[in-house]
Queue: 2 jobs
Job 1
Amino acid sequence: MSVELRSEDFDPWRELQRHQEANPQLAGRFGATCVFVGTMRDFNEGDTVEAMTLEHYPAMTQRHLEDIANEATSRWNLLDTLIIHRYGDIRPNDPIVLLAVWSTHRADSFPACRYLIEELKTRAPFWKKEMLEGNERWVEKNTPG
Amino acid sequence: MTITVKFFASLRETVGRDECRLQSATTALDAWNAATDARAVPPNTLVAINMEYAELSQAVKDGDEVAFFPPVTGGAR
């Protein structure tokens, strides 16, 4: 299991490849990999969004992301879990979050990946502030799935 | 006795401070009142004590870190 908070832009596809290469014990064992990538849009609630700042509560965020990954591992039969989440200044088209789950069969990885994103959105202490044209605002609530 | 109080995101801006230390507090609400001059707690405010979600009525003790913040909005939008 790997949980990372990043201040810099990252390439989720390269990170996936890197994680698999760094964990050769997975090779030949997993039959299913479920991946979710959350990416910043350039619009929200009818407005153009130029940039965003993602604030977090560092130690609490790390702890709760690890708790969520551990819960998924106990609920489903998973071989490995990877979470990478950005914080700081983010621009449209930048990845915000990468979630990946490896399992023997898809019946475990699909619901586990969904569990990770839904729990993350309601429990991990992150807050988005959007920069609009000549204005800024805090995002008050999550969009429905 | 020292209680550390932290505020995040829009609540930090509303309250006008990000962190303070209190010499005494009995509950999270007591800590809020002491740190904000008894400002009304905004609706939907979340509380964490030592980085675990808690209730405003929950007791605090020496060395605790009490955090107040709005609903969280991580992940993809």
Job 2
Amino acid sequence: MILENFFVLTLIKVAVVAFVLLTTLAYLQWIERKVIAHVQLRVGPYRVGPHGLLQPLADVVKLITKEGLIPSHVNRLFYLLAPFVAVALALTSIAVIPFGPQITIGPVTTWMQLTDLRIGVLFVLAVSSIGVYGVALGGWASNNKYSLLGGLRSSAQMISYELPLALAVAAPLLLTNTLDFRDIVNYQSGYWLGFIPRWNLFPEILGFIVFLIAGFAETNRVPFDLPEAENELVAGFHTEYSSMNFAAFFMAEYANMVTVTAVATLLFLGGWTPPFPEPYSDFIPIILFALAGLVALYHGLNPVRRMDKFTLPATALVFLGIAAIFGLSLFVPVAKAILMALFWFCGKILVLLFVFIWVRATLPRFRYDQLMRFAWTGLFPLSMFNLLVTSLVVALTSK
Amino acid sequence: MTALIFFIFAGIAVFCGINLVVQTHPIASALSLVGVMGSLAVLYLQLGGEFIAMAQVIVYAGAIMVLFVFVIMLLNAGAEATTFQVSRFVKYLGAILLAAFLGLISLMIQSTLPRTEGVLFGAWQGTTLDVGRKLFTAYLLPFEVTSVLILIAIVGAIVLARKEI
């Protein structure tokens, strides 16, 4: 059977993951603009497609067809290398992230993961620590003082926040006693007292908070987006970039966000394990999607605006269809395993991504000295304390 | 396959090492060093030292070299000016003499050192568990001494960096 061939199977998996990831990155931007718009009482993208749903497509076409300008006085090699480095490293980490358990489709048995490393956690840390070169080089090669300042800030910030990040990662690793993402998730399956999930979140709540905050800084997001502080540095390290080079930096930022949230989900939120015991958790997605569909149907039957008569029932149909798919999957074990794992994993990632966007819409930017003081006198001791307490508890309870 | 990967990355390491010396601009040199570190990490990985490989990338390529690049950017160091002109004849002669010198040294090493078996791919017991166990049992004293040394260096750096104490 050709599908059992390692290379064929891997190629298929890579194609699926790459397609889904790149589409997600494009739509993440749409989600971000929409959420921020609604927080600020605007409607956000609305013109291209229904509710601006085709806006990402339009943006991609716009960015591809724009002229890729290379300013004079830039260091050509590094100027062109920087966005490539940034986006390549940002997309690499996804290769070791597992999305679900082992599945068997017909004769083929495979994990819902591109590649399994015994040192997956270290790999993600390593790739993210090299990722700073993209930003730093881009800022330096542009030969522009705003870009240079952005690149400098970015390197200093990422070195500083990598410490609390790594220490926050180390604490759940002590609990699970492995560096393999699969084993980490397997450790977190099961329930205390029958209903509390055994996620690392509960013993490691402090580590989770530190990880998220350091994650904001690592991905250069508000409130730590000093490298591209618009009011001080125009656009920071990517001021001189246009067209696809600019898009590459943009993609790298969103890909990093997805990676950070995926790692947080795997380390602290139990990966694809549902938050409720087995028979109950199966009905959650059905209820959720059916409820959304029914709400849309209700509003479609009592239209407020002229077009609601058509759009809302159509939306309702989509949601009810998804609910039906989840319902039918209960009778097909393979489909159920895939869909449930994907639902919970993507659901947790989306919730965390929403937190990222929510914070961006809510918090103002730090000043640079505040940023550094916060990292070294706030987060670092906190994560160190968390690690020490965790190791003490592990040392006392093990054996 | 493993031999091919070895030669590719060994080649990259040597090329980056030479490039590091040849380049006149500090940033280019620093990035060549990153290339050396990265390809060394791949070689460690081939030997089976997965933890060492990742530590190499995280610590050297990801932290130390970023600091190097950071400082070079901060000081805005430009390309090094060459102070003297070398004639083409001297360059060629130098290359030949260098090759001969290196050949002699390798010959000497080969003849004097005892013959051992070559290192096998995947021969190291380099999993994180093994490294950790060795580090905290067999090599505990060197490990602790190294950490104290680094601590002293940090304290010294802070003392030097502070204007007044």
